[in-house]
Amino acid sequence: MDKRLWWSLGAGAVVALVVAGVLSGFASGEPDGLERVAIDQGFNEAAADHALGDSPLADYAVQGVEDERVSTGLAGIIGVAITLAVAGALFYGLRLYGRARRRGEPT
Amino acid sequence: MHIPDGFINLPTSAGFGAVAAGGVWYSLRRAARFLDDRRVPLAGLVAAFVFAAQMVNFPVAAGTSGHLLGGVLAAVLVGPWLGALVLTVVLVVQGVFFADGGLSALGLNVFNMAIIGTLGGYLLYRGIVALLPKTRPATAAAAGVAAGLSVPLAAFAFVLEYAIGGEGGASLGTVAAAMGGVHVLIGIGEGLITALVVGAVLATRPDLVESAPKTEVMAHG
To answer: If chain A, 107 residues long, is cut into consecutive pieces of 10 residues, what is the mean pLDDT of each piece?
Structure first.
């Protein structure tokens, strides 16, 4: 693969890390559109607690890190890494599968 | 826009989950046909970027915020099938690791954002692109407009789900009006961010924009 593509991908990764690691700390904490509607229309009470609500990264905060911005930023950086790993593994696997299938077809 | 557990009853969630699973399965089949060495890391990066951008809620009205969905953005950058899979991966990661979006509501969220928001939004994009000149600014603008429209589109998918199996007894008419109103506003932010990002990638690496129409090489440098 050409070197220039890796540079472009690297630049994109830096942007994603800055957005998730820094910009996220300045995000609005207000309820989002759906939450707002649920509160105003009185069905927010129907929401159940998340089954994994006690997980160490729940609600985009790293458990045990006091500073809110640092905690959110760290969670964001970890999330970018997890997403890259999961998506990378899925798409790499899918590429192998697709290639094997194409090879199996009569040409 | 991430639905928590409890808003929509389980049979409805399961039904939409089945439809969403069908959409994801079909997207996997289609994506497998053309995935190559270049697109694997690119699609992974787009997923990471959509995850990151979804963390940044922007204020839209008093006491309300919104964030990028990124479906049209992903579909324009890596094509609709990989785009739908990108959104699915983001939603799974958010639901499993960050307690964002209920686990029983995962199928609903995939249906709304990865299927309707991404594939539906991509159809809008193709329609708008066909009407505009084949230039880079027009392509970025088409992506922005389609992305903006995809947000109320996804919001109405929620209204449909609420109509079938909504809990909490809110009136459907007022839920529909409120969902539409606030998501039109969020759509403006979605459109601006999408146009900006697509424009920036077109300006630097136009070859990495899968769904851009062929532009005249000399016309725009």
So the answer is: 87 97 97 97 96 95 95 98 98 95 74
In this structure, the number of other CB atoms found within 10 A of the CB of residue B109 comes to 31
Supply the ipTM of this predicted assembly: 0.95
Structure tokens at B90: 């983001």
Distance CA A105, CA A99 (A): 10
Q: N- to C-terminal Cα distance for chain A?
A: 26
- Return the residue of B nearest to A31 by Cα: B64
A47 in any annotated domain: yes
In-domain check, residue A59: yes
Can you give the pTM of this predicted structure? 0.96
Residue A91 belongs to domain spanning: 17-104
Digit-coded pLDDT (tens) for B62-78: 899 999 999 999 999 99
Which token pair is A80? 């970018």
Rounded to a whole number, what is the distance in Å from the CA of A107 to chain B's nearest CA?
Answer: 15
In this complex, which of A27, A33, A95 lies closest to B64 when CB atoms are compared?
Answer: A33
Domain assignment present for A90: yes
| CATH number, span B10-208 | 1.10.1760.20
